[in-house]
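All the exercises in this workshop are built on plain-text protein records. Sequence and backbone structure share a record, each on its own labelled line. The question running through the whole workshop is how a given chain folds. The record below serves as our worked example for the rest of this section.
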Amino acid sequence: MVRLTNVAKRRVLLALILSLLIVAAWPVAAANIYIDYTCILKEALEAANKDKEKDDCEAGSGDDVIILTRDDKPRSGELPAVKENLVIEGNNHTINADRNDPAFEVEGAHLTIKNLKIEFDRKRKREAFEVTDGKLTLINVVVENCEEGIEQEDSHITIKGNSDICGLSADEIVEGDGGTTDITLPAPIHVDTCSQIGGGIVVTATFGAGSGVQCQLVDGPGIGVQSVVDAGFITAVNLWAYVEQGVEICFPNIGSITFIDTTTSPRVVSTIDSYRRDNSTCAHVTRPGTVVLAPGQPTSGTPPVASGTTMDQPTTGTGAAPASAGCPIHTTGHLFLRASPSLQGTVLGAVPRGSNLISPSRTTYWYQVTYNGQTGWIGHKYVRANC
């Protein structure tokens, strides 16, 4: 048996301590946590907070990045507060939030959200975000169906890019004490994504292609329902924003059309009425969702004819609604009438609360109206539309 001297023992002990310190100090790389068919947002946040794998969501240490590969609707209660520095890359997907809870809470950390749409399932009358002793950075983030933006306490808020938080102006978004803000919001700009979708697909809304409906060509992960993907599909398009006013979508192929309703949880999948127009397959949609063209045949041979509407001519996707058409609206607040659909538009006058008007055209955030002989634009925040 080899006996160690006291000096040797001290040397061995010192070596062990040094090795433990080296292991403890060894950096662990931050993780990319993907929201997909197995990892949901709630579990991803738990993994990032604890730097520990949660079910099928991996985690590292440091500033983890949560990356959405599909839309997500949080299940089983509110999301955990963000307590570790974190980046959420939305990739232009949508999170459907419960109106009873804030979309995100931040406690003592820095949360950065990029390229994400957050939509509450019903109108939320409290703040969409709550930040305590931390930082929140929003870049190209849109939050809909809410009335108040951010409640902060001893925090810093940064908002930039093409962000829209509850339709509020820059000086209305943040409330609370002891905080600072750096908010740079451009005037709302409507981007007509539907006319740029390509592939011979034509999307036309009741008020023309520039009415506020948005389109995105998606693949299997974008469809988000495995049974639909497994059944086989030709192409698929996501429709969102102002779809409720009525949209016709035509694919340059013959097939059947499946609709995935993104306003429900779980999502409802159904085969909707479709019709053939020459060598195209068309359908009418009145809810946000994913329209999937699958192998098969249209459900009917001819397009339907709505009351007072002629549908027997091909849709070009570039025409506007007839001048006599319009959306009945009711103002629930006093609004400026502006010469253009922008906060920088010249103020022509004011439209009082309780006015009933007809809007022949609109953008994502503005209605065109005529009041007291003047035609201009009013913001959407205090408008109730019946179309």
Remarks:
- The longest strand covers residues 110-132.
- Residues 194-294 form one domain.
- Helices lie at 6-25, 41-50, 220-223, 226-231.
- The radius of gyration is 26 Å.
